[in-house]
Amino acid sequence: MKIRLLEEKDNKAMAAIIRDILEANHLDIPGTAYFDPYLDDLSSYYSEQPDACYWVAVNEQDQILGGVGIAPFDREQRICELQKLYVSPEARGLGVAKSLMNTALEFASDHYDHCYLETMEQLKAANSLYDRLGFTKRTKPLDGSEHGTMDTWYIKQL
Fold first, then answer.
1. What is the DSSP letter of 94?
2. Could you tell me which residues come within 8 angstroms of residue 91 by beta carbon, excluding any fewer than 6 positions away?
3. pLDDT, one tens digit for every residue, the chain (158 residues)
4. Cα(74)–Cα(2) distance, rounded to whole angstroms?
5. Are the beta carbons of 155 and 135 closer than 8 angstroms?
6. What residues contact residue 128 under an 8 Å CB cut-off, 6+ apart?
7. Do the Cβ atoms of 95 and 103 come closer than 8 Å?
8. Cα distance between residue 144 and residue 147, in whole Å
9. Exposed/middle/buried for 136, CB within 10 Å: 0-12, 13-18, 19+?
10. Could you tell me where the beta strands, DSSP code E, fall in 45-131?
């Protein structure tokens, strides 16, 4: 497995992984990444923002196993948001999510003081990973949150 920056050629595959996972979890609803207007062009979205990146994990054949992004949330308070951590079902249990998270958090620590994320309580494996990586669960979203459907929020000091 290799982690690299998302390229334009990866947009379709990464969007499909995200949509498939959200559909499988009955989260293909408004207020989730499923309806983000830039989901089909993640490479442009992340490249156009300062201090933002999206990485993908790929196998030896350069097939996408999953991805994760970092983007600004509150520049004034130096808070970034961890976005769109998704790993294909066939790649789960191989350390892909942890490797993606480590890459994202290393980048984030160079540009921000805190990393925020929003998720759903039902995504147990993801929540367990966030706990293990030192994120603290919050009782409510940060001001400025745009995904009203989410019911679980975390923050980590970098």
1. T
2. 57, 59, 65, 66
3. 999 999 999 999 999 999 999 999 999 998 889 999 999 999 999 999 999 999 999 999 999 999 999 999 999 999 999 999 999 999 998 999 999 999 999 999 999 999 999 999 999 989 999 999 999 999 999 998 876 789 999 999 99
4. 30
5. yes
6. none
7. no
8. 9
9. exposed
10. 53-58, 64-74, 79-87, 114-119
Residue whose tokens read 């294909």:
88
Order of strands, sheet of 136-138, starting from the edge strand that comes earlier in the sequence: 2-5, 53-58, 64-74, 79-87, 114-119, 152-157, 136-138
Residue with token string 């994202």: 104
Q: By 3-state DSSP, what share of the chain in percent is helix, strand and coil, each rounded to 5?
A: 35, 30, 35
Residue 144 confidence (pLDDT) = 85
